[in-house]
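Dig into what follows:
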Amino acid sequence: MSAVVNIHKGIVPWICSIADPMAVSTYVATLEKWNNGTKPTLAQVSKMSRDLNVPFGYFFLSNPHEDSNDSIAFRTFENKARKEMSTNLRDTIKSMEVIQEWLKNEIADEEFLASPIAGILSEKDDIQSASQKLRALLQIDLDWYRKINKTRVYSFLREKVGENQVFVFESGIVGSNTKKALDINEFRAFALYDTYAPLIFINASDHMQAKSFSLLHEIVHIAIGQNDLMEGGYIEEESFCNSVAAEIMVPTNNFTDFWMNEYGEPFEKLVNASSVFKCSISVVTLRAYKLGLISRDECSKQLNVISQNVRKASKNGGYFYSTLSSRLDHKFLSLLFASVHEGKTRYTDAYRMTGCWGKTFDRLMTEVLE
């Protein structure tokens, strides 16, 4: 017999209010039963989600979500504000909200302390002191980039962030649906703030060096105690987060010394700086401009070249379980595994949050925890 799931009172009417009325009219009797306490199977909820074009995670919320889609703009490749949110992005945010809600409850049960990074900064802090505070918490030296292979930068930073009880997820698709890709032109990353379970989501469609900077950018958002959904487009907040992230990745004094002692045309220097500081050319280009080392025209010229040559992430999925485990925060998986085996979390809820079902879920846990 298929496992059934519980849908909280009030969720069905809310879903009906945001779904296509024509689609809802086809399922009035079924939805009424669900609203009156009949428990559907996961397969039935999945089909209803597709037919009504409503995110799967919406059916499992405790309370209706106040949709602020009209006022949300996400940081994109060119830092352009986008007020329209795709269904794919909406689904991803909802799934992360469901996971964060579970984490908050689990952490409260385990009596965890607050994340050391959550809310430690203010936008009134100067860039140098803010970057120093974060370096100290992340245990990152001023010249950390000299000691890390360029292929390890992102995983190194992700490990450091995770050690401070910040949960990092990444994917280039919605859930496990390879037909629903996340568009890098729509967003690069977002952050959901919480004192105990702050969460960062990285768009895995981005290239590795850009993901490193996005991770630092989002950790600054967590440090100032705010979501990175850019509601209303807070330009000053974004500028502060970019500046602190850039200072951690490319320290001012180190970069200036490099530039003054490097021979060649500006373009050659930028390429070499990207190699030395283990970051993207766009980051060093903006650093050079901010520090008055190249002109506005040179900066614009270089960024235009970069924007025209953004490479899409490889479609080679690699080893299935390695790819899957990289999408999910490993501390979250450890907590989830323990909670399931202690009987606090149902397998159906664990399957829903990880996107893995049955033996696939068990195999994932073996791969991660062994």
In short: Strands lie at 167-171, 173-174, 177-181, 189-192, 199-203. The chain has 17 helices and five strands. The two ends are 31 Å apart (CA to CA).
